[in-house]
Amino acid sequence: MVTQEGAHERGASVDVDVPSLSRIYDRLLGGGHNFASDRVTAAAIMALVPHYDAFVRESRAFVRRAVLHMLTAGIEQFLDLGAGLGGVRHVHELAQAEQPQARVVYVDRDPVAVAGLELVVREDDPSTGVIEADLRHVEEVLDHAVTTRLLDLTRPVGVVVGSVLHCLPDAEDPAATLAGYHERLAPGSLLAASHADGIVLGLETAAAVEDCLAKAGITFVHRNRRQFADLLGPWQPHPDGVAPIGLWRPDGLTLVRRECLWGNAVLAGRRPEPAERA
Predict the structure, then answer these.
(1) Is 6 left (phi over 0), alpha (psi -120 to 50) or beta?
(2) Cα 92–117–233 angle (5° rounding)?
(3) Are 257 and 53 in contact (CB under 8 A)?
(4) Which end of the chain has the least Cβ crowding within 10 Å, N or C?
(5) 111: left (phi over 0), alpha (psi -120 to 50) or beta
(6) Which of 109, 99, 56, 112 is nearest to 245 (CA)?
(7) pLDDT averaged per 10 residues, the chain (length 278)
(8) Cα–Cα distance measured from residue 152 to residue 239, given in angstroms and rounded to the nearest whole number
(9) pTM (2 decimals)?
């Protein structure tokens, strides 16, 4: 478990009395990179929504499936935005198990999440890096020394945005953020994104979850399938479109539990530029 002393080693920016969503997710996943404040909020959410931890696990399972699909499509470099603390297997472990030459850059603004990610990346690993940055700052992320060292932005990149867009209110224009990455990345790049949806969960329950997190200082916005799709902007969804997380290209025939439907997921692409006419 991350200690208060360990957090202070990371810098004064960590206030252990202020929860963060990445550490709350870590608690719900059974991890040890969380503080008492995170555990209190996680328990409050579970009191409101039993099995919410299963939904978080489904969200991480989507990331696994999406990374494997992107590898199949020929993607060999990945940008994990708002990476959090990963769960059972991290993107670089998934990708490099299939393609040892795969390169991965993790981005998160939570210093504790960054420290946790650095612990799982081997010091001698030349193909994986971690950045402490806010995903909304597109230029900062893409022009960072770690990014430019590891990723070739003239080639397709697989962008992972798992369970983080619901932390961005409409006032911060998350659609513009995604459009910014679309503009900078090469044709053929893919975007894998997931988002919480309050429809199946129930609007009153969703509002209670949002209020619980707001009291902890965390912004959380449920969006329905159409609202989530609207965030994609120029990114073109693949033919299966936006689907409930548990139904997005599942591993064979599986029993779909209700919590599998509490969010939506999509794989979208940056189309090749049209050829100029002679």
Answers:
(1) alpha
(2) 65
(3) no
(4) C
(5) alpha
(6) 56
(7) 37 77 93 93 98 94 95 97 81 94 96 90 87 97 97 98 96 97 98 96 97 97 97 96 94 75 96 55
(8) 27
(9) 0.91
